[in-house]
Amino acid sequence: MTFAGRANATCPLESTWRAGDVYAWDELELARGGSGEWFEADRHRVLRTTRFTWQRDGSKLVITVNGARREVHFTIVTAGDGCTLRFDAPPVDGASTEFYVSS
Of the four listed, 16, 54, 55, 76, which is most buried by Cβ atoms within 10 Å? Predict the structure, then answer.
């Protein structure tokens, strides 16, 4: 089932979303109140971290990093015991465009 720009009770948008595997991964945290953090890591260390603010407008997120704004559209797809968050472009520089969360 696809929820275009609409989070559901199983997988709210305000979650910690992950991408990758045990060797290298991204983590995208969308917190209530509009703060967020993305990091990229490998199995040895965190490689990059970006803090940002975000606002939601339907199926669009407006993300602000150091004063620079970026608009990305998203969908949340539920399957089995989890959900996938898909963006039409990376939410921050270097980030994946597809993340998952288990419910």
Answer: 76
Domain ranges, residue 53: 2-98
Give the model confidence (pLDDT) of 51-96 as tens digits.
Answer: 999 999 999 999 999 999 999 999 999 988 899 999 999 999 999 9
Burial 80-100 (b: 16+ CB within 10 A, else e): eeebbbebeeebbeebbeebb
Number of domains in the chain: 1
Output the domain CATH number for residue 67.
2.40.128.360
Proportion of the chain in helix, strand, coil states, percent, rounded to 5 = 0, 60, 40
pTM of this structure: 0.85
* Inter-residue contact 62 to 74 (CB < 8 Å): no
